[in-house]
Design brief:
The structure holds 2 protein chains of 2 kinds.
Chain A lengths: L12 E4 L2 E3 L21 E3 L1 H17 L4 E7 L3 H11 L3 E6 L6 H12 L6 E5 L10 H9 L2 E12 L4 E8 L2 E8 L2 E5 L11 H7 L4 E5 L7 E7 L8 E5 L4 H11 L4
Helix pairs in contact in A: 2-5, 3-4
Chain B lengths: L2 E5 L2 E2 L2 E2 L1 H16 L3 E8 L8 H4 L5 E6 L8 H15 L3 E5 L2 H14 L3 E5 L1 E5 L2 E8 L4 E7 L4 E5 L14 E6 L10 E7 L12 E5 L9 H11 L3 E5 L1 H5 L20 E5 L5 H7 L4 E6 L6 H4 L2 E4 L2 H18 L1
Helix pairs in contact in B: 3-4, 5-9
Classes of the chains: A alpha/beta, B alpha/beta.
The structure holds flavin-adenine dinucleotide and adenosine monophosphate.
Flavin-adenine dinucleotide sits at the interface of chains B and A.
Chain lengths: 261, 329
């Protein structure tokens, strides 16, 4: 749980949430081969953004005062994702209406242009969006704004006396602990912030919470998507056999035929 | 003539295995473009031998940039030194490893240089002077072929994804004491808590032994640890989300759409059913071995080799067989 000293009484937090295809749905390529087929696709809030939202809500709750603003760049349907964030407890939402591309820098520029107008101490994002898997918007946004930033944060706490945030980062080989001055941009991964479920009351309340629409600043993508294709099917496997009796044959194949062990 | 820069990374004072891959891909790209490749290694203390990875890297020059502030990853410092190396060296392409450090650094660098970034590329080709990059999207459920409209090109390379010819030439090594300005270093590094240093991270391991709910409980993981140890130092441990959610294993080991995406040479899926979100994270592995008592488990549809049976019998037998093989030498 976040904990900090008395002198932080108010905190404004922006959480960036993206609408992505449900991780369980099958991806098909649309005709033309440069986009996925939207037919029958279910969408959800990006799972890492759920952790970011939860982190924002808990931080605001612990501080007592302040606002959590959910921001999404996307088409009109991203309103659904923002309503879901409001139902979970965000205070207000901003839909930046515009086109989403795989160019994370273009996304970061659009988000930066909107966020600059809203005063906040913390911006929380997911570690990555599970559609483009680019894992870049957070550190780019921080660089554009000139704010401090930590990525892959699994736990953090505000430190009032320092105007700073102490973060645990999940990296290869272990956990790195860092302290950053506020304002700060953090990208959140799975860890301390297991998302809550929306209550009926929350869902009803969400309908009345403010959702503002702003046009996206025009930023061209410089990442040209030439084609999208399905990965080669893995050729049908081979059953070696049943039970422990099959082990010697497996080991022989892995050693003699594959040279893998 | 295009110059390519490979940005290298260390762990515990040694070059990572993927650093060798980054150099090899950089050298190959430079050759295709009729240019040359250099490498840059920021590090905290005096240089010691980089071993075979460096000797056969095929890069022209390796610059080792030494400063105590480079001992652990402080993003602002690393971004500043790499940015000035790129600007001063006039590099047309910059390649990094797709590790948590490499991806964070690449994103900041791209924003500083105002160019787009491709993370986790698994292939690259030059045709007609243009570079085409291939990267998995939707956690590997699709592959995107892309082109970056800018210079320099910045990309990170997924560990083990490229099949590489070992390079030929050794670089000229240049050790430089860095002169750094500490203003603007926002990040204070407080501590590092290492997980078991003997076990490579799942995203970097050449062989992964992954376990799922079929293991029944965390106390049974010594079975997988035994197999991992028998397979040797390149082997790491993985897990399905079901066992991570149950608290049996840390999230760092989770393989799949909301965990690590891995491409080891060999992947063992043990007591894992093979849900789409799991397959997304490991389908680009070189060879997949599945052990499951349910012959209809979806994991068998993508496995190269399968054994149907009780893992509590099969895994110990497999461990013994591999240990015996090792003992024979
Ligand atoms: C948004 C979202 C994101 C997700 N992300 C991920 C992700 O990143 N990674 C991931 O893995 N999952 C992910 N999942 C979960 C995924 O859908 C599955 O629930 C999960 O992968 C199942 O884990 P499992 O295979 O260990 O368990 P199960 O599906 O329960 O399978 C256990 C298997 O063990 C076998 N078994 C049982 N006993 C034995 C025995 N004695 N010997 C041999 N075999 C045995 C069974 O036959 C079965 O096939 C995600 C789900 C959602 C909704
Ligand atoms: N279109 C978007 N709208 C709002 N937030 C976004 C958008 N795209 C990316 N983000 C945020 O940036 C994070 C990382 O995305 P990416 O760099 O694309 O993997 C996501 O988890 C979101 O928090």
């Amino acid at each position: 749980m976040p904990s900090w000293r008395e002198d932080v009484r108010k905190v404004n937090i922006i959480v960036c949430v993206k609408r992505v295809p449900d991780t369980g749905t099958r991806i098909r390529i649309a005709r033309g081969g440069s986009a996925i087929d939207p037919e029958g696709l279910r969408h959800v809030m990006n799972p890492y953004d759920e952790f970011a939202l939860e982190a924002g809500l808990r931080t605001r709750e612990a501080v007592g005062e302040g606002e959590v603003t959910a921001v999404s760049l996307g088409d009109a349907q991203s309103e659904e994702t923002l309503r879901a964030a409001l139902a979970l407890g965000a205070d207000r939402a901003i839909l930046i209406e515009g086109t989403v591309t795989h160019d994370g820098l273009a996304t970061a520029k659009v988000l930066a242009s909107v966020i600059e107008e809203d005063r906040a101490e913390l911006i929380l994002l997911g570690k990555k969006a599970v559609d483009d898997d680019q894992e870049q918007v957070g550190p780019m946004l921080a660089t554009l704004l000139g704010w401090s930033c930590a990525s892959a944060v699994s736990q953090f706490e505000l430190e009032g006396g320092h105007g700073s945030v102490r973060c645990a980062r999940a990296v290869e080989g272990g956990t790195q602990y860092v302290r950053l001055p506020l304002p700060s941009v953090l990208t959140i991964t799975k860890g301390a912030f297991e998302p809550r479920f929306a209550s009926m009351k929350g869902i009803m309340a969400a309908k009345r919470k403010p959702l503002e629409r702003r046009p996206a600043k025009a930023v061209a993508s410089r990442l040209r998507l030439r084609s999208l294709e399905l990965p080669p099917e893995r050729s049908g496997g081979e059953f070696i056999g049943e039970g422990a009796g099959a082990v010697p044959e497996l080991v022989r194949i892995l050693r003699d035929e594959e040279g893998l062990i | 003539m295009t110059k390519v820069l490979a940005v290298l990374e260390e762990r515990e004072g040694w070059l990572t295995e993927v650093a060798g891959e980054v150099m090899a891909v950089a050298a190959g790209l430079a050759e295709d473009l009729g240019g040359s490749a250099d490498a840059l290694l920021p590090r905290g203390e005096a240089w010691r031998d980089g071993g075979e990875g460096v000797e056969r890297s095929g890069v022209r020059r390796l610059t080792v940039l030494v400063h105590e502030a480079l001992a652990s990853y402080r993003p602002e410092v690393f971004t500043a030194v790499v940015e000035s190396a790129v600007r001063e060296g006039g590099y047309g392409a910059v390649l990094l490893a797709a590790t948590s450090q490499g991806k964070d650094l690449a994103a900041r660098l791209a924003a500083r240089l105002d160019v787009p970034l491709a993370q986790e590329i698994v292939d690259l080709a030059v045709s007609g002077g243009e570079i085409e990059l291939v990267r998995p999207v939707y956690a590997g459920k699709a592959l995107a072929r892309i082109h970056l409209d800018s210079s320099p090109l910045i990309a990170t390379i997924r560990p083990h994804a490229f099949s590489l010819e070992p390079g030929k030439s050794a670089p000229e090594i240049e050790v430089v004491e860095a002169d750094l300005d500490p203003s603007g270093w926002a990040t204070e590094v407080l501590a590092f808590e290492a997980s078991d240093p003997e076990v490579p991270d799942v995203a970097e391991a050449a062989v992964v032994v992954s376990g799922g709910r079929g293991l029944k409980g965390p106390e049974n993981w010594d079975l997988l640890e035994g197999l991992r140890a028998a397979l040797g130092g390149d082997a790491g441990l993985g897990a399905s989300r079901a066992v991570v959610d149950a608290g049996w294993r840390p999230h760092a080991e989770q393989v799949g759409q909301t965990g690590q995406t891995v491409a080891p040479r060999l992947y063992f899926a043990i007591g894992i059913s093979g849900a789409v979100q799991h397959l997304a994270g490991m389908r680009t592995a070189g060879k997949i071995v599945a052990i499951n008592r349910d012959a209809d488990a979806p994991i068998f549809k993508i496995a190269d080799y399968g054994i149907v049976g009780d893992l509590f019998e099969v895994v110990p037998a497999l461990t013994r067989e591999i240990e015996a093989l090792r003992a024979r030498g």
